[in-house]
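assembly run, all chains below
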Amino acid sequence: MSCLIVQSDKTLLLEVDHESADECRRAIAPFAELERAPEHVHTYRITPLALWNARAAGHDAEQAVDALVSFSRFPVPQGLLVDISETMDRYGRLTLDGDPAHGLVLRSSDRAVLEEVVRAKKLKGMLGERIDGDTVAVHPSERGNLKQELLRIGWPAEDLAGYVDGEAHEIDLAEDGWELRPYQREAAESFRAGGSGVVVLPCGAGKTIVGAAAMAMTGTTTLILVTNTVSVHQWKAELLRRTSLTEDEIGEYSGSRKEIRPVTIATYQVMAARKKGVHTHLELFEARDWGLVVYDEVHLLPAPIFRMTADLQARRRLGLTATLVREDGREGDVFSLIGPKRFDAPWKDMENQGWIAPADCVEVRVDLSDAERMAYATAEPEDRYRFCASTDAKNRVVGALVERHAEEQVLVIGSFIDQLDELGESLGAPVIKGDMRNKERERLYDAFRSGELRTLVVSKVANFSIDLPEAGVAVQVSGSFGSRQEEAQRLGRVLRPKADGGSARFYAVVARDTLDQDYAAHRQRFLAEQGYAYQITDAAELLA
Amino acid sequence: MTENPTAEGSGPEPSDDRSDTPRHRPPTFTGWLRSRSDEELTALLSARPDLARPVPSDIGALAGRATTRNAVLRVLERLDRFTLAVLEAVVALGDDRLSEPVGVTAAELAEALRPAPAPAPGTGTAIGSDSSGGPDTSAVHHRPSEEASETTPVLDRALGELLRLALVWPDRGRVRPVQVLRELLPHPAQLGPPARPLLADLPHASVERLAGELTPDSTASTPVESLAMLLSDPGRVGALLGRVDERAHRLLEGMAWGPPNGTVTDARREVDLATAGSPVESLLARALLIPTGDETLTLPREVGLHLRKGVLFRELSSEPPAFEGRERSSGTVSRTAAGQAFTVLRGLEELLELWAQEPPGVLRNGGLGVRDLRRAAQTMEVDESGAALLLEVAQAAGLVGTDDRLSGEWLPTREYDLWRESPPEERWLRLALAWIGTDRVASLAGSRDSGGRVRNVLGPGLARPGAPQARRDLLNTLAEAEPGLVPSEESLAERMAWRHPRRESSVHTDLVETARTEASVLGLTAFGALAGHTRPLLAGDPDGAARELAEELPRPLDHILVQGDMTAVAPGPLVADLARELALVAEVESTGGATVYRFTEDSIRRGLDAGRGVADITGLLERHSRTPLPQALRYLVSDVGRRHGRLRAGTASGYLRCDEPSLLEELLNDRRAEGLGLIRLAPTVVASRENRATLVERLRQLGYHPVPESGDGAMSLDRPEVRRADPVEVSEAPDREASAETVRATVRALRAGDEASTIARRPVPLPTDGPPGSRAAAVMAALSDAARDERRVWIGYTDTDGRQVSRIVHPSSVDGGFVTAYDATRDAVHKFAVHRISAVAELADPDA
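ok done. output:
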């Protein structure tokens, strides 16, 4: 009995406890994306993009078919194998090349494909004159759009046209007291060899450092695009710590500050902002001769940035993400505009090596009192969540949890200020809210970090702050961290394994039979798919 | 041609005619057929099943049917290139319009089938020289021996086959073709017709003139006869050829290897030896060419044979061309095909389960709509052409049908229920056999007929009579390749053309091409090679096929893996019970080798709605899960269980009741429920103006999940009723193979019928104008006598369809206007109504 089962919807089920599971994972990982990683059976999906990524990384169809046939427990239907080879063979029939006489050209090893492409309606205006049977000129400005459209019609082109060098700027890694982990070095080198592309690393694996390493290898001015202001600060702090860059060399380009320096960190939000229908900050792309553009959390890249990126095809681009799966389904644009996948870390390996540590999650269910139930039932729909999420019943549970983890650093997180104030009072812990002055906040954080302060209550607003300290235990009483993906990432960031090697704990206190519980169910599914252990307890049990 | 007695141990058949035909009458085909043993007749009917449908009344009828145009055409299609060549040789040389003796000996055939002499014909050399075979040592070629009388095993085998098929028959040591073949093969081996019919068609004056010039001192009865005698004598033909010039020779050589017709202006011109000027005229004057139209000249067969030195084919191989292609391990081929087979079974089952719940409508023309086909393709996870194929096969296997309502729906049949219960290999077997046998070609769906109407899947216009044959041809040809060899397309086509040259046509080629694709979709082949489990199927051993396939198919499991993300993975097909229970309490998320189930509130509730309890569900999962049940799942089940049935609705006045006042409060406060006109009657009861059905439906839409309540206050839970259709009648192809038992019974009936129609008998005089009843009385008296003496009698009988039949019966009793008698035709005791018996005769030899 082997460990892999091939499904007709092109998902692959891998039994992880099987003795050859590791070998099998290595064989299928190049051409299948890990979709879910619960405890026993991991699900991988074979998509055209995954197959083309594999092609771009130098794997061939024979290898993929071989891996499936040799590891599959059951005979693999022939139709599926044929489909895989045919799809894979589509990549690279067309190449984009630099041509001394014509600038940019589209070449094909298969004349029929080129004919199809030249005749495609959607490509009108992107292609220039026909140079010979196998070559057609491409308008340099259409390099990105052409790649996007070619992918859509199923003939993804390999971009071999090269990159501009950009303005040189020396950046060195400052490896004092830390060093690049082997997989981080490998990721940066794979990117460097490919020129452009995406590095996939799980949360907490140090994507920022991979970015820094890539910048050091490129040695040019760099534009970094990140999701929000918190990330801007985080990147800045991390770059200052990990590289030879100084405060003066790093600019912040956000809603409040507009600095352009050799290394500039901008948010997607500000880049996507429009005034009277015009993107007002486009000049940032032209402000310097950037040698490298880094996209953080590529799976969250908004549509306008894609459009801008289409015009940046001559610059090196590095995408960083924990997952290639986009909730809007625009994986194809990432592939054609940022580049193919250049590195993918074996998640389980990293976990085994201790680089990342998923937390244990516990959902604690509290019962509403009869009076509360009645009040909940009669509440206006818009107030319902607030009502059930901030039930008094939760306070006692939080108290008990804090008591249980008296020896550890505990963060209590919530969205409703009243509830947090109440909690702060009953726990005797300071409450950090959005209106708190920075100085005071810093002081409390420092006290928490040093261990002087064991418990801290923070509001949702505050937890967006960059310097939120790490903790061994987090208790969430209300609210969520945004999308499910973001939530898992933030958990990974806040929670650190304990000194004794035990994993961190995440408690979610939830009111039974209410909206609160419905939200918790979604969270539970996602966390379980990410491989977090998940438990449910009754408050009564906990308190007993 | 030299007369040659059949050599001992060679030749087609011992020549002595065993029939009881009187010696003075020439032997006939019917007589020969009658003389064949039961085994031989059985072999004939097995090989040509169309002859036995319906069962011919006697041997005469059988002979008639065996020599009809269509029946012979059908059997010609089945001959391979070599056997066909042998048949052509028999037709060419054994034509009874050639000079006596009629027929051809095996030795003559061997001589005529030797390879052509080494120098290519058409160079005008060696005309008229004696016709000794050139030495050719090619191993492939059928090789003549020095002894003209010696034949070869391959030739014997081919002749034996032709005799078995009753295409040729032996007549006093010679072989003769059945007569219809001379029409069906008008130019055997590209030779023209014999001289005799060609001459007979000429104007009498022309023939007389030719005869007068060429055979002035003939003793033959007619001019045609004397000319025919002339042309059948090789020596005299050689002499005639010697007197024409080089140009005329070249002209003849051009026609010698066919086609045997030439075009010339004014073919019927008057010519004689003296005035003949041009080469054509010199040939016409010597009857070496005979006009067959105003502008057509034909080379008589005798002359053609002479020019070819008696050789019929320039090239003739008794072995089929070898396969060429790439090798694959036969294990991989079988495994991959089995994977495909499994996919097909699963897809079809999934679709038919869905159709049982949501049957698609039947189009007015009887087919399935395009949109429904697309949906079916999605359900089965195949493309639309694949879906069309699977549906057609399912129909052919009797698994889908229409219900009998006016606006019909497509439904699985009752047969489907039985099918689903059988093991996967048998399920596949049934589909595979149905596919091979059906004359419907699924790939025609979507094309337009001559009237421009689109043909629909399961609808009319998809039948192609040649389809089953094309499939069998393809599979049988593939079966001849080594296991694991993937023949190239060209090599396959060549081989098929060799096997059945008469079958080649663009229609057949298209059908074969379609069959190639379909066979791989259904898992009979993979990568273009035959799967291991298909071989026994073709060899008529379905059990063996099932056994082989079973080895490759995944075995049903009784365990699953339940995971924290609320999924359960069945790492293989599940035993039917478990699969059904799981499908009830979980949604199927993906299928394939494994099945992934997802537990949701809705799915658990569905299980509860169907009468499963919380303990039943967790118990089921605990029993079958290899992994510990995740705690979150237990919570989910018990949460849903706890809430299930909290809210109940009634009909009459329409009411809602709930043990928790707060829930009703919630409902009453729900603005979306205002339309239901809810009034609170008590803390735990709410009434509604709406009836129960509307109420339940609306509340479910709003996200409440009321359970309907029956009159006595119990929850009424229901499951949708499963609907089924009757199986469709699947018509049998006329040349579908019959079982050995059927064929044996047919031969028995034939013999009995033949005896009844041919046996010598003495009619019992029956009064024709006596008093009423006297005729019946006479019949009864004769039959009673026979019964008493235990004699067999012949009766003429009008059967229930009004047909006059004759039978030889063994009467046992005569009673109440009926004769009870053993009827050998049917091998059964039968009652004959006396008033239907038109004649009675005593047998000359009653115990024979």
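The first helix of chain B runs from residue 29 to 35.

The CA atoms of residues 275 and 281 of chain B lie 9 Å apart.

not gonna interpret more than that til we talk
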